[in-house]
Amino acid sequence: MNKKSSRVCGYPLSIFFIVVNEFCERFSYYGMRAVLVLYFKYFLRWDDDLATSIYHTFVALCYLTPILGAIVADSWLGKFKTIIYLSIVYAIGQVAMAVSAIHDITDTDRDGTPDNMTFHVVLSMVGLFLIALGTGGIKPCVAAFGGDQFSDHQDRQRRTFFSVFYLCINGGSLLSTIITPILRAQDCGIHSQQKCYSLAFGVPAALMLVALVVFIVGSGMYYKAEPQGNIMLDVCKCIGFAIKNRYRHRSNQYPKRQHWMDWAEEKYDKLLIAQIKMVLKVLFLYIPLPMFWTLFDQKGSRWTLQATTMNGYFGSLVIQPDQMQTVNPILILTLVPIMDSVIYPLINKCGLNFTPLKRMTVGMLLAAIAFVCAALVQIEIDKTLPTFPSTSQSQLKLLNMGSETVTIKMPGNDPLNLTAAQVSGQINISVGHPEVRNTISLAKGQRQTLLIPLTITDEWLMTDDITSKPQEGNNAIRFVNGMKTAVNVSIPAANFGLIEPFSYSNYSLIKNGKVTFTLWSGSQSCEYSTDFGFGSSYTFFIPSTLVFGPNCQESITAAEDIKPNSVHMALQIPQYFFITAGEVMFSVTGLEFSYSQAPSNMKAVLQAGWLFTVAIGNFIVLIVAELAKLPKQWAEYVLFASLLVAVCFIFSIMAYFYTYIDPAEIEAQFKKNVNEDDEDNKHKLQKTERFYRKLFSGGTLKQYTA
Ligand SMILES: N[C@@H](Cc1ccccc1)C(=O)N[C@@H](Cc1ccccc1)C(=O)O
């Protein structure tokens, strides 16, 4: 197949299939990634730190495997076959994830929770490994394969292709980060209903299959370059030889060479050595870059977890915490054209030379600002979180179930008057105080409610209250029945069951929005409606004086156990804005810089090197989070911002000393020298031929001259 296959408006038709393939693949990858941390936390029941660690290990793996993909494609299978085979591995991984999230498979007691968690953990880890292998492996191949479809003179078209390619990445990821969180928030199941992670992983699996089919359909139209041998291996061998040779000639008697790579000259081509020098210069500059990715990739972990403690009401629209990530591709789709057509030209007009390395430095600073914003938001959230008792304290709330006012005296507290059906606020009592009457026993580290009965001399009832904020923005609700008869409370989504007189129900989790409870006592019923936000907890008290009728709105008392999330998710927008502006300046520029500074046969090597910095960045999250173990989340954000500022300072010094090169010009220079050498050789050969002709009087010397 040559590069002159069918064309539309000057573009090879084959790139259409490549662009659609990328759109579906990125949909699949980002869609799965958007719900991953919540799947770890709520399905596999891991804590925040483990969920964050495994998430970043996975992301790191996704950016380590490009090296493997580049080697396989360049030295063995070629890009086309590598993409096909690794896409199959990728799709199997996605299907494994979808199956691992079906709770019914091991839910033998049908209570809605998996009974054999090991099965789900193992299957999902296998799935994630296959996905990392697939997505990382094909990453350096697809873009380069797209670039291969253009002829050498089609620079403009190739540039447009790469822009459309980046927009497709963000188009696919935008759609998927909207859709998969919606799917995850649905309830589904065969025997019992659970959050639908299986569908949230199933749709990305289907999209990966579509990506594969689309790529295969275009198969007859592609230009398929033959594998050119393993350039990475050649580079490693050449560097290895230079180091060995330098070591062998370490004595002072050997003259110094300009560059340590020049010690490879004995065995390797000058052009290859020059190309390796160019690559090493850029790779050296890459050393500080992982710190940017350390901050950048926390959007999907820490920031999503932060959003779960926030209020997601946007008018009548409710935004899921994991949907906040969509702000990134939305901003990319708007910021890339704005930067290219307004900001950069404006800076140029002001006479400033905004070089790629300067842009990348500014990108780093913007990411640091984003983390300062995240810290400020976290401080606001922390102010609204309930203070749970320490391990040496108890918290007690009192609820007067009677119809008379009672006065309660507690050690260390002023006497408290509670009118009928009144609930006190939280009272802190030091456990072990000698004056606490042993009629009630307080549990250390617990929140409890003391239910004062209708007749004060009757037995007092103690309940254990919720001790953590309800997860996933749900609200934890329970009822206390102060009536002399049993009451049944239900809503369409939950049944609190029959609550005996002077007793209480368990907490049930309820979603945000308006909820109408129906209370039944025998054949009598009444309704009570209330609005719920995110992450609150309430105890509703049914008083002894309740009269059943069409509604009992006024009679029921609501005691707030935990306040709803009050900090609005919109407050995350500034941090998303800064990190995305940083991405445009850093990532888009960095990709272009890596491409422009790489020698012609090592563009893929530098792309893999660039992606390697992303992998290291994700490992740094693990190390810093593990070593620092800061008690406050906002402090961790400030720590990351400070680290990036420090690294940015080092990078700006390195960038100052970097001189931009034109690899094509340098290569041309070498080729010219080689050609000149060839000319010289040809000359010498012709002279020798003439000499031998004379000697043998006209006989041909083909064998020699060849
Ligand atoms: N802006 C990201 C896509 C994204 C979408 C939703 C949430 C987070 C991110 C993007 O364009 N990614 C590109 C380039 C990239 C960025 C970071 C690390 C490696 C590559 C991509 O190819 O995925």
From TrEMBL:
Q: Which UniProt keywords apply?
A: Cell membrane, Glycoprotein, Membrane, Peptide transport, Protein transport, Symport, Transmembrane, Transmembrane helix, Transport
> What domain of life does the native source organism fall in?
Eukaryota
- Reactions accelerated catalytically: L-leucyl-L-leucine(out) + H(+)(out) = L-leucyl-L-leucine(in) + H(+)(in); glycyl-L-glutamate(out) + 2 H(+)(out) = glycyl-L-glutamate(in) + 2 H(+)(in); L-leucyl-L-proline(out) + H(+)(out) = L-leucyl-L-proline(in) + H(+)(in); carnosine(out) + H(+)(out) = carnosine(in) + H(+)(in)
Q: What Gene Ontology cellular-component terms does the record carry? A: apical plasma membrane
Residue ranges crossing the lipid bilayer per the database entry:
50-71, 83-105, 117-138, 159-179, 199-223, 278-296, 330-347, 359-379, 573-593, 605-625, 637-661
Q: What does the similarity note say? A: Belongs to the major facilitator superfamily. Proton-dependent oligopeptide transporter (POT/PTR) (TC 2.A.17) family.
**Protein name per its UniProtKB record:** Solute carrier family 15 member 1
- The organism is Seriola dumerili (Greater amberjack)
